[in-house]
Amino acid sequence: MINNIRTPFINIKNTLDKYQYNYYSIFMKKIILVLMLLSVPVSAQKLIYPDIPRDRISDLTFLSDSVGYLINYGGSLYRTNDGGTSWKLQKHFQNYYLTMLRFLDEKTGFIASENYNYTIPRRFYYTTDAGLSWNSNELFFGDAIDFLPVSQQKILKADRDGNIAMIDNFYGNWKTVYSMPTFIDSSDEYSYERPKGNIKQLIKLEDKRILAAGNYLDYFDAGKVTDSLSFILQSKKEGEKWDTLWQGLNKLINCIAFADSNTGWIAGDNIIYKTTNGGKDWKPQSPDAKIYYVGRKLYAIDSLTAFMLPDAGNLYFFTVNGGKNWILKNIETNYDNEFYFIDRKKAFVFGSELYSTEDGGENWKDVRKSISDNIMKIDFVSPKKGFAAGFGNIYRTIDGGYSWDTLFTSSSNSMISDFEMVDSLNGFVISGGEIYETNNGWSDWKEVSFKPSSFFSGGIHFLDSKIGIIFNAVEESIPGSHNYDLKFIYITDDGGKNWIKKKIDINDVWFPYNIKFIDKDNIICAAQDGIWKSSDRGDTWIMKYDLHFNVGSGFDFYKGKYGFIPSYSTNYYYTTDGGESYTEKTKKSLVTAYDSKFIGTYVSGAERVIEIGSHGAGLIHYLNYNYEDSYQINTFTGLDLYSISVFVDGNRPHVWMAGSGFNIIYREYELIVKAEKELELPSEYRLFQNYPNPFNPSTTIEYKIPREGNVKLEVYNSLGELVNVLVNSNQSTGNYKIVWNGKDSFGSPVSSGIYFYRITSGSFSQVNKMILMK
């Protein structure tokens, strides 16, 4: 196994590639490599809006004038081949936020990451082909302030204890090569030993020296007096040994940058210093520089040109005469952004935003060019036409979610509480305490015809085109008392033309999170204290399951019988009897859930449910109510996801997931089918030849399972690369069939050619060949 090889990590793949096999062996070897090196589960989802998600961009770098990379906290790596005009997703690592990107040379690069879930180990990624492919391993980088690849076999990191550590093989432990001096801190009632400060930055110069810039901030904060608060260390032996290159400044420095081996700058507490002899001596820049800010980042383009990013908002300083004069510039961006300079003219601002300039900062343009609102609810009425609610706007798409225009803006910028499309033309929106309706697909809108006495601040849900409910309508309990009651609902049976007002007259019902009809008579309420049910259209209510402060609002029911209740903890709950009783299950991974939706019946006969929530987390559950199986799905974001929309076109489910940053993830799911079981159950495994074959655009694959167990059915291309996963779930004994639509895991049509489909269950495995001919 690869995991047992203790060799320098860059050489692992090269060692494997030395061996030559015949065509079949190469095919099987590549399958094994794919399975062993794949760092995240294969996903059929894809981010369709925006082109670059709104997750914070944590780092950006260019290998040439045209080729560059950026990483973000959503776990995605993007590549540009045109100098940053457009960016394409290169790799995604679900559950990890990527923090630092460093390239050793034009071929070898490294990414450090952390994760949202403490149960998932941190990973470290590397490439040896200029970022076209990435491998991973588990290395601890959670304490890293900065890291520096020294060679293909050595990496340095500056940790939060002020130390410098080194690792020189992929599976070894970090070893400390520099220890920060410590002191006894007795500033409070307890005395304890702590490091004086931190190493702020590691850099490698053209003459191969490595410098580490640091300060004694903790020592200073503890009230200690010293003549030297800052220092620069030097290593001439690839980080193995360190000496003090310079110290003596009684101010704190935060950053360092060199244009060549001799010329460099440091910046910190209202200062910029320059060296022309490799860091041995430093001189303050001219007093007319007027640096009134604390420097946090420096960028040196050449011996004359440098940029300094302060900690004060949307400002930066630059010099084009070696630092004799520093010019202050302003840019309309957020204060927490970073800069990356390619040359004097071309630069990027990245962080919560992504801007670029071609004229040295005189003009900036937004690279994303996308809506920056948050989607609180998304609703599709066809595979192409959908609607989304932001803070104060309703948006519409007519191309499946790839582009959006604004249809409705609330008055006085009031927040939209909820909206619901009854069909492609008729819909309602609750905003600013009022209800508006449209009858022509949001081209025009007006206040509802009925005049309720309530102030609306809650939600709306329709069972079908006729039956709907509005909940959390607010009224004063006693006129003039300013005490408000949320326990009013309005019910319609004619598509919203007329509404009947009712009160949930139970003192024990706390604030309702969500209320839905599950059929024409029964209503489910998810409230603060648990799950309630009314079987007489809201006249009386009965507590069905006590979930004190743990019930999620985004529950869903299917066929009026099957129900899924998410939670804000590690459990979920389902019912098979219309909400009369519930079964509790533990999630395989933590999702603080905000919404869930039934997709339809899977090939195994199980009901499929998608659950989404905080940090871009998503789970798909397969429930046949005798067993359950679930796995995480890629969402290509680390931002919260709030809403799911499912539209079934024929027997093909289309699913959209949306949330913060207007991020929208789409998946066209497998056909809704049922397992066909013969009276005589199969006694052996068998994978049949697909039909038709050759095929265009889809083909059917049948197989037999003699005993219950996990079944995986995968499609590979002729190079042994994984194309799609058609089945990956527990299945009971029976005969099954599934249709492959000729698309890859991202929903894109594959090209003509030879493909292989492989079934694996227990110790059984079989591979068949099929041909796609367009």
Write a structural description.
Among the domains are: 1-37, no CATH class; 377-668, YVTN repeat-like/Quinoprotein amine dehydrogenase (Methylamine Dehydrogenase, Chain H, 7 Propeller), CATH 2.130.10; 686-772, Immunoglobulin-like (Sandwich), CATH 2.60.40.4070. The two termini are 40 Å apart. Strand 10 (144-149) and strand 11 (155-159) form a beta hairpin. The chain is built from three helices and 65 strands. The strands form 17 sheets. A four-stranded antiparallel beta sheet has the order 1-58-57-56, with no helix packed on it. Strands 2-3-4-5 form a four-stranded antiparallel beta sheet, with no helix packed on it. A four-stranded antiparallel beta sheet has the order 6-7-8-9, with no helix packed on it. Helix content is 3%, strand content 46%. With 774 residues, the chain is mostly beta strands.
Helical fraction equals under 10%
CATH architecture of one domain: 7 Propeller
Report low-confidence residues grouped into runs of 5 or more: 1-43, 674-679
Q: How many strand segments?
A: 65
* Name of the CATH homologous superfamily of one domain: YVTN repeat-like/Quinoprotein amine dehydrogenase
Strand content: over 45%
**Order of neighbouring strands in the sheet with most strands:** 1-58-57-56
Oligomer: single chain
Rounded radius of gyration (Å)? 30 Å
> Number of helix segments?
3
Amino-to-carboxy terminus distance: 40 Å
The CATH class of one domain is: Mainly Beta
Largest beta-sheet characterization:
4 strands, antiparallel
Shape: globular
Q: Briefly note the structural class of the backbone.
A: mainly beta
The CATH topology of one domain turns out to be: Methylamine Dehydrogenase, Chain H
Tell me, rounded to a whole number, the average pLDDT: 83
